[in-house]
Specification:
The protein has 212 residues and is of the alpha/beta class. It has a single domain, classed as Rossmann fold (3-Layer(aba) Sandwich), CATH 3.40.50. 48% of the residues lie in helices and 18% in strands. The two termini are 21 Å apart.
Amino acid sequence: MSGRVIAIDGPAASGKSSVSRGVASALGFLFVSSGHFYRAMAWGAVRDAITAAEEEAVKNWIVAKKLTLTESSDGITLSLDGMDATTHLSDPAVAAMVSKLAAFPIVRDTVNARLRALAESHDLVMEGRDIGSVVFPETPWKFYLDASPEERARRRAKEGAVDSVAERDRLDSTRATAPLTIPKGATVIDTTHLDLNGVIAAVLGHLQELKR
């Protein structure tokens, strides 16, 4: 890992993406969402009519996939087999597939390899569910954002999302491979009663302390 990595983990609708974008912008780092990688894969699986019921079928499918990255001022744009996946990441079918597909070790290994490769040449603010615990456990800059289930459900509904926060929590926390957990040494921030700027300021404040 040549670049610096700020890991921001947490459950669905805890504010990870918005906070990570804000922190990345303030520091001049590249913003990366690991969830976008999994959603791009989930979109491909839906497109290719791959179910998450057969691990062998998923293995055979994923080794033939070509995931390419394009950097932009807003982060990273993902294409799968030459097709832009960006506009499909929030599709209902993708939301229903993503946690099931991410439970397979080969899918997580494939995504994690791409995430680690980015750190060879970039300073990153990366958000996800296992960034500080599995992908970059060695980084000294780890945060875990959380909020009450009621507040997170309200945020998802406001976004027009159709997936259930409770179901996402269950799937993410009980999967055998890299379950959602608070990374060792992470700073925990409850975002329930904080606005976006307040959470960004809290993260940046802790980063100043860590650099001293």
